[in-house]
Amino acid sequence: MKKVSIVVPVYNEESTIQEILTRASKAITIGLDKEIIVVDDGSSDKTVSKIKNLKIKKLTLLKHMKNKGKGSALRTALKRASGDIILVQDADLEYSPKEYPKLLKPILKGAGKVVYGSRELSGKNTHSSIFFHAGGRLVTFLTNLLYGSSLTDESTGYKVFDAKFLKSLPLKCRRFEFCPEVTALTLKKGEKIIEVPISYSARHKEDGKKIKAMDGIEAIWTLLKIRFKNT
Prior knowledge:
Spore Coat Polysaccharide Biosynthesis Protein SpsA, Chain A, alpha/beta, seven-stranded mixed sheet
């Protein structure tokens, strides 16, 4: 039986971590074996104790002693993930594990090695602000321009990969540049990214949303750097 590794980077999410991990553990994964790898990225609140209080089978908790960033947490998770498929799950409640069957299906059918859940394809989702939405659209536009792709939502939090393919990529990300880095490396290798429509429940800055304007600038720089690097 094939296995899916659900990797969850988390930093100061004491109010949502138990709910999202419970939902992930109960989510349908189309007959796959399942493991959950959580990396606490130096949380200073009660996130770790909240995780330890959960009774979830096949959940592994890894910890960074200090905050290093989402990209670093994901790279730590990949070293421990033993599944045939890697599914990235954010620790807030913006993305719903009920979408797992839809996200996993293309890879299980052999249609491709990379699947993104697009918030734009559903046509029904709201966004936390015009600023965040515009920033995401800009990064998506530049991705398509630079790499000849036709993505609708490059910065989506739901990204799913064939594990061997993902682990073959020379990821160096530390912060939120994981998304543009993995997208750029995937497209530069000539691998198609399949998109499926997903639901999305946006949260706002006052609710704990952490991404900032500088992260958008870093995303653009990452796309440019990889596109014109001679490799």
